[in-house]
Amino acid sequence: MIDNGETNRLRAIWQSNEAELDALSLDAVRERAARLGSAVERRNQREYGAAAIVVVMFALYAAVLPGLLLKLGSLLTIAAALFVAWQLSRRTSRSNPDAEMCDIRAFYRARLAREEYMLARVGRWYLAPFVPGLGIFMAGQAKQAGTDGVAAWLFFAALPALVFLAIWLVNLRVAAKLRQQIARLDSYSND
């Protein structure tokens, strides 16, 4: 999952003030596109690593923990991690070795737009797939704790819900910053 430190770093790369955009040369756009590509690549590697850790942890849980709910929740969480890794690979912007020969501003804008689109919808493709598996897993935790009530399930669900909310809000904020960057780039291109 995307952490705040990396989000701040990505935001710093994507943001710029008006004065910088007014004097944006092709070399500056090329440099920003390269930095964006590097940041996206590092983020994706971290995300794939996190997915691998989730798969290993929940595979162990499925093998070791007692109870059908814990096993089923673990297997659904593994499926969610694999699905999210696939979605990240499918949705993320990729570098283009031929970018030097094309309109670098259009290339950079397209990469920004693709990242914005992906981040603005992170709730659907990144967080939502985990909800069923984690919900069932937490119901299994509540049952193992000896309480079958809704209050126990809510207790186990509170922390993941807060983490999901934070991830969703941070990604929406970064997507809004990217929209601003795209609008500034568009206004510069129209001048």
Characterization of this structure:
This protein has 191 residues and is an all-alpha fold. Helix content is 83%, strand content 0%. It has eight helices and no strands. The chain has helices at residues 4-14, 18-22, 26-64, 68-91, 104-120, 122-127, 130-144, 150-190. The two termini are 39 Å apart.
Give the count of helical stretches.
8
Beta strand %: under 5%
Taken in chain order, the helices and strands follow as HHHHHHHH
**Uncertain runs:** 16-22
Shape: elongated
Q: Please identify the structural class as seen in this structure.
A: mainly alpha
Give the overall average pLDDT. Answer: 83
Query: What is the alpha-carbon Rg in Å?
Result: 20 Å
Count of distinct strands: 0
Distance between the termini: 39 Å
Summary, kept brief:
The protein is an all-alpha fold and 191 residues long. It is 83% helix and 0% strand.
Describe how the helices and strands are arranged.
Blueprint: H1 4-14, H2 18-22, H3 26-64, H4 68-91, H5 104-120, H6 122-127, H7 130-144, H8 150-190
